[in-house]
């Protein structure tokens, strides 16, 4: 999706919860979501299901998207994950072999990998992104992160695990 098709004012109003802006954002994004789902999913029925699920997730989580620039990457990662989930549900997609995925990542040029990692961080929901950045970039301990966020160790560990899983999924697709 082209971020140019969505005005910054519309995006910000939707992010802040304006019902008319959210409806307009959904209407503007739907054709691109559907087109991407048709190209990504294995069947037209899965593409329609993935489109509907992506629209629902966008409706529920538009307030968590930090910037218009991150919007497209976030939205398309939602569609990609939903297509994969539907394919696995029907047994059409094999389970991912972590060693093969890691080898493919290491084979990428370093500059491309850096951009992909930055995009993966940007695509994370804020509560996961904060924990992952504190741990993996700032190299803070779990206890330091828990104090900084006012959360329990278990919450921090769960968020870190989920953030890393989402990033791994983003990078291996």
TrEMBL record:
Q: Which UniProt keywords apply?
A: Sigma factor, Transcription, Transcription regulation
Domain RNA polymerase sigma-70 region positions: 26-90
Fetch the InterPro entries from UniProt: RNA_pol_sigma-70-like, RNA_pol_sigma-70_dom, RNA_pol_sigma70_r2, RNA_pol_sigma70_r4_t2, RNA_pol_sigma_r2, RNA_pol_sigma_r3/r4-like, WH-like_DNA-bd_sf
SUPFAM superfamilies per record: Sigma2 domain of RNA polymerase sigma factors (SSF88946), Sigma3 and sigma4 domains of RNA polymerase sigma factors (SSF88659)
Residue ranges annotated for the RNA polymerase sigma factor 70 region 4 type domain, each copy included: 116-166
Similarity field: Belongs to the sigma-70 factor family. ECF subfamily.
Protein name, UniProt field: Sigma-70 family RNA polymerase sigma factor
């Amino acid at each position: 999706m082209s971020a140019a098709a969505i005005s910054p004012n519309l995006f910000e109003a939707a992010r802040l919860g304006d019902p008319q802006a959210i409806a307009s954002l959904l209407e503007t994004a739907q054709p691109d979501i559907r087109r991407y789902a048709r190209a990504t999913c294995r069947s037209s029925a899965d593409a329609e299901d993935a489109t509907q699920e992506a629209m629902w997730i966008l409706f529920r989580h538009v307030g968590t998207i930090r910037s218009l620039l991150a919007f497209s990457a976030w939205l398309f990662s939602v569609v990609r994950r939903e297509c994969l989930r539907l394919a696995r549900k029907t047994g059409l997609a094999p389970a991912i072999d972590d060693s093969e995925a890691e080898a493919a990542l290491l084979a990428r040029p370093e500059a491309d990998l850096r951009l992909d990692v930055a995009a993966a961080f940007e695509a994370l929901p804020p509560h996961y992104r904060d924990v992952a950045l504190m741990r993996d970039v700032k190299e803070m301990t779990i206890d330091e992160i828990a104090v900084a966020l006012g959360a329990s160790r278990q919450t921090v560990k769960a968020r870190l695990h989920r953030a890393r899983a989402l990033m791994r999924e983003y990078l291996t697709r």
